Amino acid sequence: MPIYEYVCDSCNHQFETEQSMREDPLTACPRCSGKIRRVFGLNSVIFKGSGFYCNDSKKKEASSSDGAATPCANCPAASGASS
Questions:
Q1: What's the pTM value of the predicted model, to 2 decimals?
Q2: Where in the chain are the domains?
Q3: Regions of the chain with pLDDT less than 50
């Protein structure tokens, strides 16, 4: 269930609440009963598990003659790396 952040226009009280996406937004401040508004901030995303990085999803290849592994074509490090 998502957590929403609200701020009161009257007393500037900021708080978070866990609500279903189907619920109507809250309208009254729990402190002063003033008008509140939902605040939209930056959300963080955490990728867990395999398959999110180029070295996780590609098959193991035989190493080249110098022993260095070749980076996958989609890896951001491959385009900006200079060795």
A1: 0.49
A2: 3-39
A3: 83
